[in-house]
Design goal:
The complex is a heterodimer of chains A (194) and B (438).
Chain A lengths: L23 E7 L8 H11 L1 H9 L2 E7 L5 H4 L5 E8 L8 E5 L20 H10 L6 E8 L11 H23 L13
Helix pairs in contact in A: 1-5
Chain B lengths: L6 E6 L10 E7 L2 E8 L5 H7 L7 H5 L7 H15 L8 H31 L4 H7 L1 H22 L8 E2 L2 E2 L5 H5 L2 H18 L12 E6 L10 E4 L4 E2 L4 H4 E6 L2 E8 L5 E2 L2 H8 L5 H9 L12 H22 L15 E9 L2 E9 L5 E7 L1 H19 L5 H13 L24
Helix pairs in contact in B: 3-4, 4-6, 4-12, 5-6, 6-8, 8-12, 11-12, 13-14
Classes of the chains: A alpha/beta (194), B alpha+beta (438).
Chain lengths: 194, 438
Amino acid sequence: MASERKSSSSVRTPPPSVSERASVVLIGVGNALRHDDAAGLEVVRRLRAQANAARIAARAQIALLEHEGEPLALLDMWEGARAAVLVDAVSSGAEPGTIHRVDASRGPIPARLRSSTSTHAVGLGEAIELARELRRLPARVLLYGVEGARFDAGSGLSRPVQALIAPLADAVLGEARELAAAPVPPRYARGVGE
Amino acid sequence: MSEGRPTRVIRTDYLARVEGEGAMYVRLDGRTVADVKLRIYEPPRFFEAMLRGRAFTEAPDITARICGICPVAYQMSAVRAMEDACGVAIDAGPLRDLRRLLYCGEWIESHSLHVYMLHAPDFLGYTGAVEMARDHAEIVEQGLQMKKAGNAVMTVVGGREVHPINVRVGGFYRAPSPAQLRSLVDPLEHARETALATVRWAATLPFPDVTCTPELVALSEPGAYPIDRGRIVSDRGLDIAPAQFDEHVVEEHVEHSNALHARIRERGTYLTGPLARYAQSSQTLRALARDAALHAGLGPVCSNPFQSIVVRAVELVQACDEALALIEDYQEPDAPAVEVTPRAAVGHGATEAPRGMLYHRYEIDEDGTILDARIVPPTSQNQLAIEEDLRAVVERSLDLPDEQLSLRCEQAIRNHDPCISCATHFLELTVDRGADGV
């Protein structure tokens, strides 16, 4: 029966415009059915699943979000937030499991990290640069790129990527907390709603 | 380049601004186009295999993940196919209206992304949206605003803006209230105004003089612009039910691609998408969209694929205007879904994804377990037509320097908004000019 597998409780209400309330958005970006492309999603899922981490995030007004699909939607997801921490898979030729940390607030994303491994229409790097041109980038944007081993269709992370999900989740949450506690940069002081 | 330089090969490693990543190869012998290949490495066979053994109710959610740009199309073709198998038809009433509304949201989102972010830079001489935004921030913002209106429809009706979770076989998990839908009126009215301006603007763009005449195939339904149902009709006499798709369309392996290339049996190449829909059904456009097309100078058929940007803009007007009409007439259904009881059968579903017709076929057993699945994405169907376009464009542009010719080729591919990710993940684009051709 069509109604048996999924109860109506599985219907989520439309996501609130999270950044209206959140000071910092922590967004896992990726594709759940492209093996290591799910790394960013897995990081955020881990944080959500851990009561302690979820509590810390809520207290610090850090929104834990997942984003699959078209990256330009990120411009709306981080609207109003003072900072964004993004976690995505990358394929730059480095050793799988390598973590690239880029402070996108300081300048353009390096070209080697811009070639998207995802099925996105406009890559994550392009979405960031477009937002920068349009002055719609939060004052601080940190990108964590997880070097993946495989991006073919299928689920499950490769071993080197799986091994870093837990430590990376702790690291990005720590980073988001620092950003949430930092003084609001002057040009973003208005309209943040705090 | 001259007759004395027999080989010129254009090779590009990546197709920028195409959904997914693509590979293209063009070889010229003298002034003859010797070879054109658009290569796709991975068909959606993983998903077809994954569906086998799953419950028939899971198909919409699983197939929605094939593409981040057109998840609703996958859901709608899946639910139609499953309902067809189970002997249920949702062809009227608020549930069908909600489906069309959701689909309008996807058209708005996808078309505004393509028109503004992916296609406009080609015409305005920029390498991409980022570079274009430096000089034309207002154009990019317009596109983003319109796209946001589409996102809002997806969120309210679909449950979230990407990979909607509210769609199920038989209808929806929860129907939105009229008040929820009314919240969409302002952004959609604004988007409709922008869409009308987009048609006027797109009509002024410089178009290369190219005519392509593949067989145009689209769904067709009396009195309505095709979105979520209809017969499969062409300008050369094809007129079949979706259930007959298999009899009339063959998929063939070609050497240079892992994907199957679709052909109409005993005839060959065909094209689906905005140009085909418009050619079949422009008379069923809503008055506002029809007038916009008229004022933009579009005739009853548009044979220049570069002008597809104008047709997409007209479809943006159509989608916004129809969405507003559906919201105005909406009455909350008594139940968000009708009951669908599985039976051993085969079902077919065809709907119009923004970039073309998307066909699903499923065989299920009496418990509703999926025994077999077949998915034919629009880009697989359009591959051969895109290659023929490339050939025509190259033949008319032989005297362009390599770099410009390469760009013109990429543009010719983008004319059809190929969602290569529907069929593959990685796609190398190679335009190979031999050493003599430089």
